[in-house]
Specification:
Elements lengths: L1 H24 L21 H6 L8 H10 L5 H27 L7 H15 L2 H8 L3 H8 L1 H12 L5 H7 L1 H6 L1 H15 L5 H26 L7 H4 L9 H7 L17 H24 L5 H17 L3 H13 L14 H18 L30 H17 L4 H6 L8 H12 L5 E5 L4 E2 L10 E2 L2 H4 L4 E2 L4 E4 L5 E4 L4 H10 L10 H4 L2 H10 L2 E6 L14 E6 L4 E5 L13 H21 L23
Parallel strand pairs: 1-4, 1-7
Antiparallel strand pairs: 2-3, 5-6, 7-9, 8-9
Helix pairs in contact: 1-4, 1-5, 4-5, 4-7, 4-8, 5-18, 5-19, 7-11, 8-9, 8-11, 9-12, 9-26, 11-12, 11-16, 12-26, 15-18, 15-19, 16-18, 18-19
């Protein structure tokens, strides 16, 4: 019975995240592929092609490599389901257990569990998560989910109860998420590493851990020679999605740059006001907790939240945008700062812990100045109401309402964001085209037309905007237009230039029609000359992944259709015109990836377990104790 109870208690944090994920994802957990903006999963993603990389910053290499590896043993849609559920389970469990660890002086009964539940629910159910999910940024959200684990690993690093292995282990979600996830981890836990004793040692170990998990994208980025377009500063600046303006929207954890990613009903006055009340209550709870119990992460996490909010504000004003553009002009590495709303992640964790603190206050389970979060002796059993008097019913009811409030004030995230996250199946001709290209072992790239990055495929049922699935469908180098066109608040458009140098060269030669995205007039009048040009560029196949009226390949001798369907045509360039070497397998990407994987395996072996908060080992110093297992 005791073992069963311990298992149930250990599973509770994960169940909170699982329940939240099931409610949020709903139909997205069914068979098929959820396609939306950057969320693009395809059947049988090719691992060798992912590792080969492409020109530009290889942002998606870590997440795509993990998806491709899992796709070797699982269907692609099952991998997507696991990835989406992991966001909610890892994030919910992390915030839950972080509050439990930070409040060891609280009563060990239901009060602390309810407070931890409030933290877990709010952390995975807020506008930040909803908007990033509707943008399709599941990999970024996976790194976001790992932030509580990273923060606690750094706390334990300062207390000598973990080492480099513990931090690397906690950074596994960030390693999968890629560069944005690692940047968020550095922002959230970096200030904490500089707080307390041996700060230089702690900061050095944390920085080393960040480098180890970043190698798959970091080294190729340093050698790619890619540039970042400063025009993205205006395109990705935070925007108002509530009646409270841009600054108010950011405080509410919204303000994403893409209006199409705002959850249904979120910007209405009633729901926005209710959300504002929840935020105000959570921030008040955080301030009260700082004053009352001084949690060990209080200073560090507060600094992280303030810095992140300041970065988000840079894009709000014209001087701030000019400053960011100047930074990017000096060094492309400042490019990630363009999407300022992303850096609200530490503030989200602050609000989640603040909501938990409100529950602790309501249930009167947190004593004053017991060094909460400091792992002192006698941490359990303290904070009970004097004489064991019961908590008034109104306090219990209010605490339960605080736990449920995030869901109530953001109903637009329920059940696949009101049906916006609905899975679909790839049409038969798409799978046939993938099989044809895979069966051809001759070298040569795939050119994707029309020349635009995003599509609204009609076969998706309810039309959605998604990165062209053809860009990941094939097991070889794919050339596609990685420019991004974004509408501005004044009704104009900003085109953010892509980073793939080979794509820019192809665009210069093809002279694509801006209206159709197909090759320019002179090539349409002479498709065989087009075939010769494509062959000289190393292109063996051309995929037209949208319905087009002008079949420019009609009558061509050297450009023949292999697969044709309602909205996809696969064309093959005659072999005599192909001038292509085998796609190179970059030793840099492969080697750096192996180092990162080796570091993760080493970190797991050192602990003897997977990602999690580990029980500290007994200490021999004076005043040490063995913690009671949670």
């Amino acid at each position: 019975m005791r073992t069963a109870a311990r298992v149930a208690v250990g599973a509770l944090p994960w169940l909170v995240g699982l329940l939240a994920g099931a409610l949020a994802l709903g139909p997205a957990l069914g068979p098929g592929y959820v396609l939306r903006y950057d969320m693009l999963f395809v059947p049988g993603l090719s691992l060798p092609t992912v590792l080969a990389g492409a020109d530009g910053f290889p942002r998606a290499i870590p997440s795509d490599a993990v998806v491709a590896a899992l796709s070797l043993v699982l269907p692609g849609d099952a991998v997507q389901t696991l990835a989406l559920l992991a966001v909610f389970m890892v994030g919910g469990a992390g915030a839950f257990r972080l509050l439990v660890r930070l409040a060891p002086g609280a009563s060990a009964g239901g009060g602390r569990v309810l407070g931890a539940g409030a933290a877990g629910v709010l952390y995975v159910w807020n506008p930040f998560v909803a908007e990033r999910l509707l943008l399709g940024q599941w990999a970024v959200l996976l790194g976001y989910a790992g932030l509580p684990w990273v923060l606690w690993a750094v706390v334990r690093l300062a207390s000598d109860r973990t080492g480099l292995a513990g931090v690397v282990r906690a950074l596994v979600p960030a390693a999968v998420g890629g560069f944005s996830s690692v940047v968020l981890s550095a922002l959230t836990a970096g200030p904490q590493a500089l707080v307390g004793p041996r700060r230089l040692r702690n900061a050095g170990l944390f920085a080393l851990a960040l480098v180890l998990v970043s190698l798959p994208w970091l080294l190729p980025s340093l050698t790619s020679g890619a540039a970042t377009d400063p025009a993205g500063v205006e395109a990705f600046a935070a925007r108002s999605d509530t009646p409270f303006g841009t600054v108010g929207s950011l405080l509410l954890l919204g303000g994403v740059w893409n209006a199409g990613a705002v959850p249904p009903g979120y910007g209405e006055p009633v729901t926005a006001t209710a959300r504002a009340l929840v935020c105000a209550l959570s921030l008040a709870g955080w301030v009260w907790w700082l004053w009352r119990a001084r949690p060990v992460v209080g200073v560090g996490l507060s600094v992280s939240a303030a810095v992140g909010f300041g970065i988000a504000l840079l894009g709000v004003s014209a001087p701030g945008r000019e400053f960011l553009a100047a930074l990017i002009g000096l060094w492309p590495g400042f490019g990630p700062l363009r999407d300022g709303q992303l850096y609200l992640a530490p503030l989200s964790l602050v609000q989640a812990l603040g909501a938990g603190a409100v529950v602790l206050w309501l249930l009167r389970v947190l004593p004053a100045h017991e060094g909460a979060g400091r792992d002192r002796a006698g941490a359990t059993g303290e904070g009970e109401r004097p004489g064991g008097s019961p908590v008034p019913l109104w306090r219990v009811v209010t605490a339960v309402l605080v736990v449920l409030a995030p869901v109530v004030v953001l109903p637009g995230l329920l059940w696949g964001a009101g049906g916006r996250l609905t899975p679909v199946e790839y049409p038969r001709e798409w799978v046939a085209a993938q099989e044809v290209v895979a069966a051809d072992d001759r070298p040569g790239a795939v050119l994707v037309l029309p020349w635009s990055a995003y599509r609204g495929p009609e076969w998706s049922g309810t039309p959605v905007v998604v990165l062209d699935p053809a860009t990941k469908l094939f097991d070889r180098r794919t050339i596609w237009n990685d420019d991004l066109s974004v509408g501005t608040a004044d009704g104009g458009r900003v085109v953010v230039t892509g980073e793939d140098a080979r794509a820019r060269e192809v665009a210069r030669l093809l002279e694509p029609d801006p209206a159709t995205g197909l090759p320019g007039e002179r090539w349409r009048s002479d498709p065989d000359a087009l075939a010769e040009l494509l062959g000289a560029l190393g292109v063996r196949f051309v995929v037209v992944s949208a319905p087009v009226e002008n079949r420019f390949w009609s009558g061509a001798e050297f450009l023949s259709p292999v697969v044709e369907g309602a909205d996809l045509a696969l064309l093959e360039v005659d072999d005599q015109h192909i001038n292509a070497d085998k796609d190179p397998r970059s030793g840099l990407e492969v080697t750096s990836g192996l180092v990162t994987v080796g570091a993760i395996i080493w970190s797991m072996a050192r602990s003897g377990s997977s990602l999690g908060f580990q029980r500290p080992q007994p200490r021999t110093e004076r005043g040490a104790r063995k913690e009671i297992p949670k």
